[in-house]
């Protein structure tokens, strides 16, 4: 393909840098798509993620499939055509997907059962921010759309109160969400 011939050749360490850059870019893509796509015109799929799960899967899991497709295509093209730049971009998207799965599905939502509760401040903040995101059951009015970055918890709580648009979970549901975070006293930070 003539257009592929124009892509510069990169060595392995440049490939690692490209992949790391793509991981950072993917967090921005995730924030934008979570805010304006998942909580926008594709709420019909994402809504399942804000409701109690009735089985191993939910409609929201289609977003993981949608995210994997470009990564698979880029990895196939990059490796089959020996274009390290494309391979590195595909690897960065794949790495973000793996990190997302680890943080979001395993650490926060415990879709893979484990007994570990993070004690490190950054990890706790990620978990707490996502819990605050789920305090709102409706499409509008929620906070914290990132997966690897979360603003300070106090700022998120203030933003949540200021929004006032969303349907807030009952206090029992909120407490259950908060109890999943070890050391509930840390919640107020």
Task: Note down, in words, how this protein is organized.
With 189 residues, the protein is mostly helical. The protein has 2 domains: 9-108, no CATH class; 121-188, no CATH class. The chain is 62% helix and 0% strand. The protein contains 8 helices and no strands. α4 runs antiparallel to α5 (84-108) and α6 runs antiparallel to α8. The radius of gyration is 19 Å and the shape is elongated. The chain crosses the membrane at residues 12-32, 62-79, 85-103. Pfam families: FA_hydroxylase. InterPro entries: BETA-OHASE-like (IPR045019), Fatty_acid_hydroxylase (IPR006694).
Give the % helix.
Answer: 55-70%
What portion of residues belong to β-strands? under 5%
User: Any idea how many domains?
Assistant: 2
What is the alpha-carbon Rg in Å? 19 Å
Reading the helices and strands in chain order gives HHHHHHHH
End-to-end separation: 54 Å
For the secondary structure, the number of strands is 0
Shape descriptor reads elongated
How many individual helices? Answer: 8
Low-confidence parts: 180-189
**What is the mean predicted local confidence, pLDDT?**
87
Q: What structural category characterises the helix and strand content?
A: mainly alpha
Largest sheet entry: none
Keywords:
2 domains; 189 residues; disordered C terminus; single chain; mainly alpha; elongated
Summarize the structure.
This is Beta-carotene hydroxylase. This protein is mainly alpha-helical.
């Amino acid at each position: 393909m003539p257009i592929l011939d124009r892509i510069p050749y990169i060595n392995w360490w440049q490939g690692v840098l490209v992949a790391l850059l793509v991981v950072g870019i993917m967090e921005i893509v995730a924030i934008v798509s979570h805010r304006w796509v998942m909580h926008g015109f594709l709420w019909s799929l994402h809504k399942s993620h804000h409701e109690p799960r009735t089985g191993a899967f939910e409609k929201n899991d289609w977003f993981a499939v949608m995210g994997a497709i470009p990564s698979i295509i880029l990895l196939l093209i990059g490796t089959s055509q020996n274009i390290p730049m494309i391979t590195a971009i595909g690897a960065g998207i794949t790495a973000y997907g793996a990190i997302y799965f680890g943080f979001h599905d395993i650490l926060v939502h415990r879709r893979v059962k484990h007994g570990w509760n993070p004690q490190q401040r950054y990890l706790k903040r990620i978990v707490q921010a996502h819990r605050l995101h789920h305090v709102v059951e409706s499409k509008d009015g929620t906070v914290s759309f990132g997966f690897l970055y979360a603003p300070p918890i106090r700022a998120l709580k203030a933003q949540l109160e200021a929004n006032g648009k969303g349907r807030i979970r009952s206090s029992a549901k909120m407490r259950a969400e908060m109890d999943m975070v070890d050391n509930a006293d840390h919640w107020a930070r």
